[in-house]
Structure formats: C-alpha cells, structure tokens
Amino acid sequence: MTEGQLLSLAQQVVSGLSAGSIYALLALALVLIYQSTDVVNFAQGELAMFTTFIAFTLLTWYGVPFVPAVALTLVFAFVLGYLIERIVIRPVEDAPVLSVVIVTLGLYSIFNSVAGWVWGYVPKGFPSPISGGTIRFAGLTVGLLDLWILGCALVIMVLLHLFLHRTTLGIAMRATAHNRTAARLVGIPVGRMLSLGWGLSAVLGAIAGMLAAPKIFLEPNMMAAVLLYAFAGAVLGGLTSPFGAIAGGLMVGVVENLLGALVATELKAGLAFFMILAVLVVRPQGLFGTAYRRKV
Amino acid sequence: MLRLEGVSAAYGRIQALRGVSLEVPAGSIVALLGANGAGKTTTLRVISGLLRPTGGAVYFEGRRIDRLPAEAIVRLGVSHVPEGRQVFAELTVGENLILGAYARRDRQKIPADLDRVFGLFPVLRERRKQPAGTLSGGEQQMLAIGRALMARPRLLLLDEPSLGLAPMVVREIFRTIRRINSEGTTVLLVEQDANLALQVARFAYVLQTGQVVLSGPAAELRQNEAVRRSYLGY
Ligand SMILES: Nc1ncnc2c1ncn2[C@@H]1O[C@H](COP(=O)(O)OP(=O)(O)OP(=O)(O)O)[C@@H](O)[C@H]1O
Ligand SMILES: [Mg+2]
After folding, report:
1. B147:A181 CB<8 A
2. Phi, psi of A22 (to 5 degrees)
3. Taking every pair of C-alpha atoms in chain A, what is the biggest distance, in angstroms?
4. FRET pair for B217, CA 20 to 30 Å: which of A29, A62, A220, B63?
5. By C-alpha distance, which of B196, B198, B200 is closest to B221?
6. CA-to-CA distance for A237 and A240, rounded, in angstroms?
7. DSSP bridge partners of B131
8. Local confidence band at A260 (pLDDT 50, 70, 90 cut-offs)
9. Are B207 and B33 in contact (CB under 8 A)?
10. What is the tens place of the pLDDT at every residue in B109-138?
11. Which protein residues touch ligand 1 with a CB less than 6 Å away?
12. Exposed/middle/buried for residue B194 (C-beta within 10 Å: 0-12, 13-18, 19+)
C-alpha cells in the first residue's frame, strides 16, 4: 500500500467517526429507552428529524439566532419526548411487545407524514456554525464539519455520563432502569423517571438530527438510514450498555466508510450489516452487553 | 404507630390476605410469622404502598396511608427492606445508599447519616465504590438495611433478613436490628425462622393463608403448643 492510499484510508476513518458519532448519539437514545422501559423506539429517528425541522423553522422562518434556536429546540424535544411517554407509551406499557412495536411504528409514520405535510419533501440546507473548509493535520485533510460533529457528539456524551453518574437525579434514573420495585421503595417516582428518560432521549435525538442535517440535508426521510445504522450500533454494543452504544455506533460508522472506500460504495450498507450479523452469531448479547435479563 | 384494620389483598384472582388486623406500637419490635405463602410479604407490600389493598385500612401515626403511592409513604417515615434484598446491583454501594435518601428534603444531613450507616456496617464503607451486585449475600442484606435507614424511617419493615445467610452473619444482622431499634426505630420483622424472631421481638402475629390465626407476646408464643409444633420444630 502506498502512503497516499494509507492517508486516504485514515481520512475515511475520520469521516467514519463523524458519521459514527451521529449513529452513536441516536444509539444512546435508543439504549436509554430500551434499558428503562424495554421499548424499542422505532420513532427515535423521526423524532430527531421532526425536532430538527423545528430548529430549521425557528432559524429560517422566524429569524431566531442560532444558539437560542438550538436551545428552544432542545426544550421542545424534551417536552415532546416526556409527553409521548406519559400519554402514548405508559398506557401500553404492559401490553404485548408487538403492540408496543406497533405504537412506536405508528409514531414513526405520524411524525414522518406531518413533517412532509408541513415542510414538504424538497431537501433543505441546515445552517451550522462550522460549515465548509478543511484543515490539514498530520498530512491528513480533515473536513471541519466532520470535526465539529465529532467534537459536539463527544461533549454531549461526556455531559450525559456526568449527569447519569454524578447527579442524584441521574443515579435515580439508572436505578429505575435496573430495578423498578426497589426504586419505588426508596421513594423514587418511577413514572416521572421514565418520562424523563424519554425526554432525554428526544434531546439526544434532536442533537443528532441538528448535527447530521448540514451534512445529509433536511427532509422528512433523512433519518431512515441513520436510524438503521444507529440500531446496528446499539445492537452491536449490546442494547443494555450506554458505553456499548457509543462504541457500536462509532464502529458502524468507521466500518461503513472503510468498506465503501475499499470495496464498493453500493455494498457498504450490506457489508456493514454482514459484519454485525457475524458478531451477533458469536456473541448474541452484543460486544458490551450482558446476557438478557427481565426486569421486575 | 402502625395499625392494619381488616386488610385484604389479592394478586389478580388469588386472594392473598383476608382481613388482616394488627398493630405495631411505637418503639417495639413486632414479628410476623407464618409458613411459605401465608401472606407475610404481601402484608409488607400493602403497608409500603407497593400493593393496593382490596379492602380494609392501614394507618400510620393515625393517618390513613393505604391509598398513597409508595414514594409518599417513604416520605412519611416507613422504609421497606424487601424480600431478596433488591439492591441496585449495577450501582455502587455508595450510590445505593445515596438513593436511600432520595425522598428526603434535608439533603445537608445526608453525610451524617452515611456515617451512621457505615458505623453500623463498617464493611459497606470498604466496599463503597464497588457495584452492589458483587457483594456477598450478607453484605447485600446489610446494604439493603443501610439503604432503608438512609431515609430516616421511624418504622422499618424487614422481610426475611436471615434468608440464605450463614448463622454467624445472621447473628450479626440481628444484633444490628436490635441496635437500630434501641436507637429509636420501630421494627416490623417478617421471619420464617420463628426461633430467631421470637428472641428479638416483643410481640408476634402468626399468619396462615392470609389470616391472623394467633398473636401474643413473644414469650407466650414460645410456650404455645401449636406454635412450637408448626414453627419452632420441637
Ligand atoms: N406476584 C404474585 N402473583 C400471584 N400470586 C402471588 C404473588 N405473590 C404472592 N402470591 C401469592 O400470594 C400468597 C401470599 O404470598 P406471600 O409472598 O405474601 O407469602 P409469604 O408469607 O411472604 O411467603 P414466603 O415465606 O414464601 O415468602 C401466596 O399464595 C402466593 O402464591
Ligand atoms: Mg415472603
């Protein structure tokens, strides 16, 4: 392999990490919800898309400056996620798994069609404080946008970790996910923790959507492929481990990009999933997951 | 301090309690005895609000609590150490204890209470950073009791604290239960091991298929022919 080829591979790794960090954020959102409610939220990507459209509307229709628009969007996402859990998910909590799947698929379809109705299907550009441009670093040409995405995602992950491990509320949320009976016994309002979890997941999704939009353009179906990769990342990481979701998401991004460059762009999705299947055949609980246990 | 009046409870169509009445005076240790499936755990679950009774009433310090959610009952001063310990296995010992104080409003007093729990169970201090799931059975029981104490309960509900533990560990735990009681916490103790329970309790109730079939001072029950045959084994 020539030096040029090596460099181009390294570049693929960097843009893979950038795409992977978006998968990782969405995978984290999926895992947070799955851990605490055993619900696989198929609407996670559409929620991210929908909230990104809200940001878009604030920015371009109402001329709200970037930072307040993002802040308002995150608040909106939190409230939306919170209310969805309270109003739609709670009543079906004890229903058969398939009913819950249908409910989240229903949410998927509702958000998708409402977005299409309000904003149309023409892809829109989404502003970013960092847009074009590259920097050269150790012989690599790295896109600034990629670095920005990766950096933001890492900061968010660190903040989430600190929240879940250093604040009483975060510890209570983890406790609720692991053992609801015991959580009730120490006086944790379990229902509110579950709503909070959905709110937090919607916020993570909104961030993923707003980070991805400058790159993949804003349109109602923008998150379909992203969600698929996020699922792959979450499953690869083991579905029960936030750390696994991050590692899994990043790995999926890197592998997808490398395979695209080395083999054939057309095959990259197929090959990435082939790799995931191979991992699951050997380790059904995923790379970082623990064997499945039922909550009480 | 605690009074149950004709409490009934059911799991779906299975009737688990049929009109249980009992009383726990302030400052005492009261034991609740009975064979497997008698309804001991169900009684505690009703008191702590994990299960809504289908009939009857529960009063704590004169106040009716059987319609309150579990978190409100903890806040009133009733802590339940459940059957099987139910520690948060993935969380550290320290995190478990911090969560014990979740319902409290006086957060600045938490460090002092942590010290008290570490005083009662020194091994928990050593294991503070360790996931609770890695503790031994006895240590998990200590953690479950410590976590309940972090809520500063006036009434402590203990469900089979001796279950599956070596005799030496059981002795240590029961010594601590006595000490907790002598420091002012009232205790309602559920035990399969009637010998043990009647040694620490002042008064006891015997449950059978969801009904109180016998009650009296512990010393009296120890002499009772039926109790000796069914529960004491001599
Ligand atoms: N979750 C449940 N669903 C259905 N029935 C239950 C449930 N929990 C308990 N029961 C039934 O209720 C009755 C009382 O059970 P409970 O657990 O209160 O007994 P216990 O005295 O605590 O017994 P043990 O000594 O075995 O702990 C039993 O007949 C039991 O089968
Ligand atoms: Mg029991």
Report:
1. no
2. -70, -45
3. 63
4. B63
5. B198
6. 8
7. B92
8. confident
9. yes
10. 899 999 999 999 999 999 999 999 999 999
11. B 11, 14, 16, 34, 36-42, 83, 192
12. buried
Ligand 2 centroid to residue B59 C-alpha, Å: 22
Record: contact A178-B151, CB cut-off 8 A: no
Mean pLDDT over each residue of chain A, to the nearest integer: 89
Contacts of residue A188, defined as CB under 8 A and 6 or more positions apart, other chains included, come to: A172, A175, A176, B71, B99, B102, B103
Which of B41, B47, B189, B190 most suits a substitution to test ligand 1, by most atoms within 8 Å of the C-beta? B41
Sorted by sequence, the CB contacts under 8 Å of residue A168 that are 6+ apart come out as: B98, B99, B102
Cα nearest neighbour of A171 on chain B = B95
Query: Does the reported pTM lie above 0.80?
Result: yes
Residues 6+ apart with CB under 8 A from B78: B2, B47, B48, B60, B65, B153, B154, B155, B157
CATH code: domain A3-282 is: 1.10.3470
For residues A10 and A2, the answer to whether their CB atoms sit within 8 Å is no
User: Tokens 């995931």 belong to which residue?
Assistant: A276
Query: Which residues on B lie below 8 Å from A179 (Cβ)?
Result: 86, 88-89
CA distance A229 to A211: 16
Rounded to the nearest 10 degrees, what angle do helices A66-84 and A190-216 cross at?
140
A194 secondary structure, DSSP code? H
Contact check, Cβ <8 Å, A187/B70: yes
Cα–Cα distance between A72 and B37 in angstroms, integer? 54
H/E element, A241: none
Q: What is the ipTM of this complex?
A: 0.90
Under a CB-based contact definition with an 8 Å cutoff, are residues A73 and A58 in contact?
yes
User: Could you tell me what percent of chain B has a pLDDT over 70?
Assistant: 96
What φ, ψ does residue B207 adopt, rounded to 5°?
-100, 145
Cα distance from N-terminal residue to C-terminal residue, chain A: 55
β-bridge partners, A136: A141
Point out the ligand 1 atom lying closest to the alpha carbon of residue B34: 21
- Model pLDDT for residues B53-111, shown as the tens digit of each residue: 999 999 999 999 999 999 999 999 999 999 999 999 999 999 999 999 998 888 888 99
The answer to whether the beta carbons of residues A113 and A51 sit under 8 Å apart is: no
Q: Indicate if the pLDDT at residue A1 is higher than 70.
A: no
Interface contact flag, B102 A168, Cβ < 8 Å: yes
A220, A116 Cβ separation under 8 angstroms:
yes
User: Are B151 and A187 spatial neighbours (Cβ–Cβ below 8 Å)?
Assistant: yes
